[in-house]
Amino acid sequence: MSTNERILPKGVSETDFDAALDRFRETLGAEQVLIDSDRLAPYSKIMMAGDRDDYIPSAAVLPTSTEEVQAIVRVCNEYRIPIWTISTGKNLGYGSAAPGETGQVILDLHRMNRILDVDPDVCTALLEPGVTYQQLYDYIKENDLKLWLDPPAPSAIAGPVGNTLDRGVGYTPYGEHFMFQCGMEVVLANGEVVRTGMGGIENSSSWQVFKWGYGPYIDGLFTQSNYGIVTKMGLWLMPEPPAYRPFLIQYQNPEDIEEIVEVLRPLRIAQIIPNAVVIVHTLWDAGTHVTRKEYYDGSDSIPREAIERIKADEGIGEWNVYAALYGTPEQIEVNWKIVEQAFGASGKAKIMYGEEAEKRGGGFSYRSALMKGDMNLQEFGLYNWRGGGGSMWFAPVSQAKGSETKDQTELAQRILGKYGFDYVAEYIVGWRDMHHVIDLLYNREDPEETQRAHDCFAELIDEFAKRGYGLYRTNTEFMEQVAGTFGEPLREVHRTLKRALDPNGILSPGKSGIRL
Ligand SMILES: Cc1cc2nc3c(=O)[nH]c(=O)nc-3n(C[C@H](O)[C@H](O)[C@H](O)COP(=O)(O)OP(=O)(O)OC[C@H]3O[C@@H](n4cnc5c(N)ncnc54)[C@H](O)[C@@H]3O)c2cc1C
Fold it and tell me: FAD-binding PCMH-type domain spans which residues (predicted)?
């Protein structure tokens, strides 16, 4: 398909599409309805191993208020126009700002970027979808509030609403974002607005503090789904602690992942270590600032000998644990002793903080910043590791048990190796779970390599599912396959909800594999 050719939404006539575009222009003004391929180009960029032609929008609309979103949705319902919603549109490695399929109209909410409320007493915020982490961070600093955010790695450019709705993660004690979300305003497919939780009560003062409201809890229905458009979202912010100690623990052998997880789990569950800890493999830790070709130029998976050279040259471990303690200086001293004792028992770990950790190779400085909610873009360095712009996050969940992480690591390395890719990975530790996040990096400019990356990702999904490991999130190319691994009964429930809430199937068709 050529981008010069006019792209119409699936099943919509040219006349109807033109009529709908006119109605969008009446509501938003002509400037906020994009149809030229030049202006739509940023919405067609993908990093995943799919065909670019499968992800071209037919238009983009940019509202600034809930009322405008309602008006757009009503028009879409009338003409059966499918829309794909984005907030700040930086879902990089999971589909970017591109639609789920060619022909959908992008509903880009980045101009709805008001910070509606920040309450420093109960530590909450109410935001529109276009607010970025940087914007909220600046607001907090300008107003001298003692509050911390929990950004994901590309924080400065991404936003809390989109990230939370895709159930993203960060690195402070508030790392599991959906857990710290409270209250939503949602535009439904028929144009009506619903407020969740306590938001249904007029003038409620507890919308942002009590998650559950009355009756069935429905906020989850609007995450990783296509049942509504979130136009406001509440979230909890962390009070700035009096003291903070980020630290680094390095282990040198591949099989040490088992010991790390066994030592870490009880400390995490008991909240001795309260934050979303990461256990970073050599190639990720080095890959943020080292390129592959400095060590190996082959097109197959990087050999062990090269990994050992990287470890020695860079001063990083096979596994690098980044975590932090928070509280008063006295609390930190007590907890630090517990951490030192637990990790020191076997004699395998090198345990560091402060200057000693800063001097080691790897990502201590940017990780320390992320674990206290500061912004940086250091992780984008990973795109220079192999080069060529291809990136797909493969992110299966495991129990926080050493045996499972060892099994998952070996399985991933075997499959990636079969297709000639490197294991660039980390584990992000929740309370009892781990997100095993693997960046499948490849050269998108090379069609053969892109096809190989596609086949590799598909095999990873299937082979992991066969062993009982599902993904926590995926990119738009593989939504259907991943939904299949969770079984038909669940898919049927998703479909039933879709029919009830969006009978014309206009909202993000295909998101998470859900269609009418
Ligand atoms: C180097 C690098 C590191 C990364 N590290 C992390 C990380 O640490 N943690 C992490 O979670 N991710 C990470 N990512 C992935 C991703 O970039 C972030 O999750 C980012 O925050 C998502 O972009 P966004 O916030 O702009 O979301 P958006 O793209 O705006 O939204 C994400 C998706 O949510 C849905 N959605 C958005 N807004 C709405 C709405 N208003 N109503 C209904 N549905 C909506 C849509 O399906 C949309 O596609 C990383 C990416 C890169 C490149």
Answer: 48-240
Q: Are 118 and 149 in contact (CB under 8 A)?
A: no
Q: Report the separation in Å between the CA atom of 381 and the middle of ligand 1, taken as the mean of its atom positions.
A: 18
Distance in Å, CA 243 to ligand 1 centroid: 30
**Contact 99/81 with Cβ under 8 angstroms?**
no
Is residue 225 in contact with ligand 1, taking CB distance under 6 Å? no
* Residue 264, both tokens: 């870490």
**Residues contacting 498, CB < 8 A, separation 6+:** 226, 227, 505, 514, 515, 516
User: Does the C-beta of 168 come closer than 6 Å to ligand 1?
Assistant: yes
Helix (H, G, I), strand (E, B) or coil at 397: strand
Catalytic residue (one of 55, 94, 295, 427): 94
Whether 177 lines ligand 1, by a CB cut-off of 6 Å, is no
Expressed in angstroms and rounded, the spacing between residue 167 Cα and the centre of ligand 1 is 8
89 lines ligand 1 (CB under 6 A): yes
Give 107's strand partners. Answer: 61, 85
pTM above 0.90, yes or no: yes
- Of 390, 492, 488, 395, which Cα lies nearest the Cα of 442? 390
**Phi and psi, residue 13, nearest 5°:** -75, 160
Q: Best mutation site among 45, 61, 65, 87 for ligand 1, i.e. most ligand atoms within 8 A of its Cβ? A: 87
Catalytic residue flag (residue 469): no
What are φ and ψ of residue 104, in 5° steps?
-70, 150
Residue 43 appears among annotated catalytic residues:
no
The DSSP code sequence of 74-121 is HHHHHHT--EEEESS---TTTTTTS-SSTTPEEEE-TT---EEEEETT
Residue 4 has a pLDDT of: 57
Determine if ligand 1 sits within 6 Å of the CB of residue 90.
yes
Nearest-atom index, ligand 1, CA of 169: 11
Q: What is the pLDDT of residues 310-369, one digit of tens each?
A: 999 999 999 999 999 999 999 999 999 999 999 999 999 999 999 999 999 889 999 999
Q: What is the DSSP string of 503-515?
A: TT--BSTTGGG--
- Nearest-CA neighbor of 374 among 171, 169, 131? 171
What spacing in Å lies between the alpha carbon of 91 and ligand 1's midpoint?
A: 4
| Tens-digit pLDDT profile for residues 374-433 | 998 899 999 999 999 999 999 999 999 999 999 999 999 999 999 999 999 999 989 999
151 CB less than 6 Å from ligand 1?
no
Q: How confident is the model at residue 156 (pLDDT cuts 50, 70, 90)?
A: confident
Annotation marks residue 295 as catalytic = no
HSE toward the beta carbon, residue 327, CA cutoff 13 A: 15
